[in-house]
Predict the structure.
Amino acid sequence: MAMIAENISLHLAGFDLLRNINLTIESGQVTAVVGPNGAGKSSLLKVLTGDIKPTDGRVLLNGRNISQWEMREKANLLAILPQHSELNFPFTASEVVGLGRIPHLTGYGKDQEITINALQLVDASYLQRRLYTQMSGGERQRVQLARVLAQIWSPSDLGQQFLVLDEPTSAFDLSHQQMILDIVRQFASRGVGVLMVLHDLNLAAKCADNLVVVNNGVIAAHGSPDKVLSEQLINEVFDVQAVIARHPVTDTPLVIT
Amino acid sequence: MRYFSAPVLVWILALLLPVVAVTSLGVGTIAISSAEILHSFSSAVIGSSGDAQTNSILFDIRLPRILLALLVGAVLASTGAVMQGLFRNPLADPSLIGVSGGASVGASLMIVSAGGFIQAGALTGLSLVAIGAFAGGFIATIVVYRVATSNLGTSVTTMLLAGIAMGALAGALNSLLSYFSDNEMLRQISVWQMGNLSGANWLKVAVMGAVSIWLLMRLPAQAKALNALLLGESEARHLGIDVQSVKRRLILLTALGVGVSVAVAGLVGFVGLVIPHIVRLIIGPDHRWLLPASALAGASLLIVADSIARVVVLPAELPTGILTALIGAPFFVVLLMHQRREI
């Protein structure tokens, strides 16, 4: 089972935002989407998660069209961390994470337990009783991440689960960037299919099984980081002269600009 | 920092409300002692007749008035909490969706166009003014909702702007109607706009009671959806909430609740804006507790405000709406200053 984009195109207000995109997010794998600003990464995410209907093509979640899933069932399978959050009400961190349990009927005790574990996983246990409105950007982003993880904390009878993260590392310091990569690998090893937009090519190369390069609304390259990352591609897509070396420890591609 | 745990506050408010209501029975132009109140109630229960004048004051005037204050206060405060959640804006209140503006135009129109009928209409208990107010408020809300709804769903931002436009239009229509009215009509319009519970009777209590019970029973089921909506609309959708139908339901419930409140009590401001805000400062924004706590606090505030309105300028009475703001505003400011000091 997988999340599959079949020949997706998106035209909005006279612009071709996406053209003929075919993409498969396998369960148990981490797929990273990279590309310059305005390339269509966010549009692709919105179409894949069912926020926007594609002009052409369709998105299948575990074999069924994404718009045909019942909303609560879909929420059991697909959790999405947006780039920015609008929340400006003084929930505590525990309450925010607890919102991730809304689609589940597991009861108060179980939800509490998951909330505590999820906060611990993102290194935010100390925030439990703190108010969201008084947290720093990185703390907020970690709490939101914990909420999304709590939503797909345990496997579902309804099918394979997927985790979509839109630039999850943008507000994080180095140690928390590493933390999120570890968490993502951990969920993938449990069978969750992970899709994330990243800006840092090296983070993507380190963590992802598949790298998808989006440029001008089409997929410019697709495959393992080893195969995809080349000096020529980076020059074409990002208009930057770069050197590809090997990471001395992990032996993954290392982009040096 | 939270001052109380939510269940504690709900219990305190639930115990406070009957105390406030019973105390209020004794307050008025003619003070009635608690012994007399007890005597009247016990003789009513066993069927014997107590003092006729006291009975009449208690059962024909004060009891319906207190019950009406309770219901209107509960509905205004809980729908205020709903609007603030729906608009993700702690400064929203029910008037934002046009219901108050529409209602005041409806009421003014009735006062001006059917001036002679008002007294005759009052015989039925629910005056033409009340019916005009309800119709005006409801129609205005539907128009605002329709303007903001396209095939992509309802935009709360557009709704906010359409509500402001509706408010401006209502203000202009009100001024126009005032311009063409005589002194007596002007006085009626302005008294109505201040919000007044002195016209309470059992029919109004029955209508308001039916609407409030229906409303207050349906709101708790929306509490989780409102919590999710605070995250943003697409986040709420990703949590499995059918956002569009939640919005439609909450806006209709609010229009109905506030429409009937305004029809029976005029424009009682401040309760819908400030009560949920104060409650949120104390226990946080979780709607599972915010909605019942706001309803209870709103009920108590309106009973207290109305009791003071009855005695503050004896032998005359003040319109209740003036008192809600007079009591609530300073309290609110103190709380805000306290909150700022903590941050």
